Amino acid sequence: MIRLFAILMLLALPARAEQIVLGLSQDEVAITVTFEGSEIIVFGAVSRTAPPPQDSALGVIITIAGPSEPVTVRRKAQQMGIWVNTDAVFVNSAPSFYAVATSAPITDILREVEDLRHRITIPRAIRSAGAVVADSVAFTEALIRIKTDQDLYQMRQGAVTLDQDTLFRSAISMPANLTEGNYDVRIYLTRNGTVIDTYMTTIPVNKVGLERWLYNLAHEQAFIYGLLSLAIAIGAGWLASAVFTLLRR
Amino acid sequence: MYIYLPIAEVSVNAFLLLGLGGIVGVLSGMFGVGGGFLITPLLFFIGIPPAVAVATSTNQIVASSISGVLAHFKRKTVDPVMGGVLLVGGVIGSAIGIVIFNYLRALGQVDLLVQLCYVVFLGAIGMLMFVESLRAIRRSRGPSAVPQRRKHNWVHNLPFKMKFRVSGLYISVIPPIMVGMLVGILAAVMGVGGGFIMVPAMIYILGMPTKVVIGTSLLQIIFVAGFTTMLHATTNQTVDVLLALLLLIGGVIGAQVGTRIGVKMKAEQLRILLAIMVLIVCGKIALDLLIMPSELYSLGAGGHS
Question: What Pfam families would the database entry show (chain A) (predicted)?
């Protein structure tokens, strides 16, 4: 809805003064057996129909969001001397991966109301509703903290280099523990903390080769996959025994 | 070298997994335990999702147990008759265990129950074995090392007697079936092969010689673990074959080494080492429950909507 609204707003302003032209270092991420994470370079330029206004500074924000998924956040508490999961908060939708890179401190280039509208910063990108526990904020904070520790959530202020208010560039590193899906890359151009142009593209992240084959087999031919696993186990067990018997002779 | 695991969806160091499998394999060959109670917590620790860790470790147990049992077959330290009788009980027990497990999961807090199960059973069995084998070592060192006569207890007064030639026993089939059932139930609830319960039960309840116990225990673990692997693969799709492969390469080699170490050691020394290991794992799990965790929050996928 909000995005649609934004697009309509942009369409209503045919003569946009500043527009984004974008490039990516790669248009897909292939998860192979030796996948160790990936670095995506997002680069682009601001095309102008008129000279840039001198009274305000240009801001660039780049976000990459992995597919969203529901998450349950549980909290432990001490009961009868032992630590057990007691409270839980259900988060309707949290991106599996979310990186934000900005050209300047986020508060300087993005106003709160614009952040709310476009859901740019990490807390805004997480949607939780119907929290039963009183201090549900602590649970969302914990979610962000845990994901940040795993490099799955990244907030990199000043990681976008902006050259002569025209060329921008940022390298975003994606860790090895990625989930599959379409990753949305969004670029926001701001002036005076207001978003003046957005651009969106998608990078598919997919398992390929052996990874793809095993994953499909496990889900589509579960019985055969199970037998395959057992066959490998039995074969390896027998082989080791046979090899050791030969070695002893 | 890092390997991306297709089902676990994480990237892990291949050599770490090989080493982990190797260590657990050595223990498996030495003591006749599948090693599930060791490898599953270790996999959690290196960041494998719990469901995948539990399912995949059962597959690795199959491999190391086969490797171990073949070595034992060559030394004729396996009692296939006893193994078969135990397995009958084991299959009945694991079917009951799965029903109990699903019932507990519906109630919630199944993780806590599994952990408490670990602490109680590992603690009790570990202490029992530790004290007993310590006594046995003291006795053998004493000047009047009189060989103990096997006492006749209630086990010998039950009907349906059967001859177990390799074990040198002539006892009723009821106690082995009961032991198999108990182990099957616990194995399904705790997600382990059950060797660490089976081994002491065979020694102390059935009165089997320690050397035969290990091979026989391994033999029956193969079937229990194989059955569980198929169950996990078909219902949850959580068996990661690549993870299993890395673990079992280390595991099968380790099991061969372990069997050879085990043969050179005295029975009571083996038992006291197993007891110490069981107590260490028990202590670790107990501490996790008692000490305040550094991160109080944890993330779970999905959940109720």
Answer: Alph_Pro_TM (PF09608)
